[in-house]
Amino acid sequence: MATILRSVHWTVLTGSGDPIALVSDAVEKTDFRVVSSSPSSIVVEVPRAMLKNRWGATITGTLSLGAKGTDIEWVIDGPGSKHYEHMVTIGEHMPEGSLDNHGIPEAVAKISLKMFGREEIRHLSNVLDRGEFVYAIGIGSLSAKMGIVALTDRRLIFLEKSIGSEDIVEFALGSIGAMSLGKKMGGETLTISHSGTSATITTLQPGQGDLIARKFRELKNQPQPTALNTTASVDPIAQIERLAELRDKGILSDEEFKSQKTQLLGNL
Predict the structure, then answer these.
(1) Which of 16, 44, 124, 170 could be a cystine partner for 59, CB 3.0 to 4.6 Å?
(2) Among 154, 160, 125, 163, CA closest to 219
């Protein structure tokens, strides 16, 4: 069976502790194992498990300084379809509050989540980009498949997760021309007009489609931030403090710390 590469972004929040130590402790609570680690990288081996219907895989994480803490770029290399499942397994053993949750718990709290959809919720953070934020979530059908619908600050995602299958359909916010709400006997519907075509998500629970549509209109009507505003939002002093923390943990060398510090001070 051919191997597949998939990428997952994590952010270990500032103040949570040493990211390598946290990940290593989490891996120890699974049947995976850490095969190598350094201040800037970690490699995890997932063994083949016949009883769990699981192929073996190699997971490589590369660490870098981020706005909220330490970013980890994971690459999962292996056959089969459980790449995201591997990351869920590790993530469930990370200390509570140590990872950026992308606003998912708050979005879920706004809806009535029944048994269906819980599996997709567990996997949602694995398909999000670094810093991506979820505003609204619903449960519906697209092309005869049931899954969750998530509206983020960047796109609308439909995620279907079942045995042996992980389907993701996404619509970039910039490509969506309109989003219309409808109602049928089976629930609410959302029709998305994008790039000259359309797609309809059906059987959304009452209120879920309305919540997504209203938040979409808010996002589309927001003024786009200018480069000046983006620069002003960066606090060089806070960045230097995070750099010092990474240097003290050995993730950055003294030379790397001094170089980045000098660059940040030049922005004052």
Answers:
(1) 44
(2) 154
Looking at residue 230, its pLDDT comes to 43
Answer yes or no: are the C-beta atoms of 202 and 189 closer than 8 Å: yes
3-state secondary structure of 76: strand
Tokens of 37: 């680690």
Residue burial 31-52, b: 16+ Cβ < 10 Å; e: rest: ebebeebebbebebebeeeeee
User: Whole-angstrom Cα distance, residue 172 to residue 139?
Assistant: 19
The pLDDT, as a whole number, for residue 165 is 59
3-state secondary structure 29-75: CCCCEEEEEECCEEEEEECCECCCCECCEEEEEEEEECCCEEEEEEE
Task: Please report, as a single letter, which amino acid is at residue 133.
Answer: F
CB contact burial 246-258 (16+ within 10 A = b; e otherwise): bbeeebbeeeebe
Question: Would you give the DSSP letter of residue 99?
Answer: B
Give DSSP secondary structure letters for 134-200: EEEEEEEEETTEEEEEEEESSEEEEEEEETTEEEEEEEEGGGEEEEEEEEETTEEEEEEEETTEEEE
Tokens, residue 192: 């998305």
Residue 103 has φ and ψ, to the nearest 5°, of 80, 10
Give the Cα-Cα-Cα angle 31, 32, 33 (nearest 5 degrees): 120
DSSP 218-267: HHHHSPPPPHHHHHHT--HHHHHHHHHHHHHTTSS-HHHHHHHHHHHHTT
Give the model's pLDDT for residue 117. Answer: 60
Distance CA 248, CA 55 (A): 38
